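User: Could you go from structure to sequence for me? I need the amino acid at each position, not a summary. Structure tokens:
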């Protein structure tokens, strides 16, 4: 009996930890994205890794990356980035809402379609954040760094999706 209870408790703990993986991986993306690297003439550029992770997990495991988790991750990102508080949370929530709403379009389809979807959503999200952030600060910042940030996100998305896909397989095997 004690062995059976221990096995049940272990499976329960494993299930809980497994369910946290998308949130923890996305949180890691938030921290990685805040390590700036310089682009000559443009200053520090932060990749849109959290946006890519939210897009990916919202399609693959929306039950594990709930709106509350996404909102919280956005607030953490805002705090670290120094952006208007709530802007990143709003952007990530919109990305999640779009991705969840269109997940049937992407599931089981060629990767190129998911990449195109990310390119579209990331472009709209980046432009929206640029405009709303500019309005909140009273002036639009230069668009050059945003363009480089977006190009970097689009170029890195296949690598990020491949890594996240590997993590997704581990989750599937653990369940």
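Assistant: Here is the amino acid at each position, in order:
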């Amino acid at each position: 009996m004690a062995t059976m209870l221990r096995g049940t408790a272990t499976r329960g703990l494993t299930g809980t930890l497994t369910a946290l993986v998308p949130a923890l991986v996305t949180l890691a993306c938030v921290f990685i994205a805040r390590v700036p690297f310089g682009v000559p003439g443009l200053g520090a550029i932060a990749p849109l890794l959290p946006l890519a992770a939210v897009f990916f997990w919202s399609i693959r495991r929306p039950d594990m990356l709930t709106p509350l988790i996404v909102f919280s991750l956005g607030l953490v990102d805002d705090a670290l980035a120094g952006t208007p508080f709530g802007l990143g949370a709003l952007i990530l929530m919109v990305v999640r809402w779009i991705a969840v709403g269109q997940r049937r379009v992407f599931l089981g389809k060629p990767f190129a379609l998911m990449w195109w979807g990310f390119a579209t959503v990331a472009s709209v999200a980046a432009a929206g954040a640029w405009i709303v952030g500019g309005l909140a600060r009273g002036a639009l910042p230069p668009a050059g760094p945003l363009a480089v940030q977006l190009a970097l996100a689009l170029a890195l998305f296949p690598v990020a999706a491949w890594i996240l896909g590997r993590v997704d397989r581990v989750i599937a095997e653990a369940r």
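One structural detail worth keeping in mind: The radius of gyration is 18 Å.
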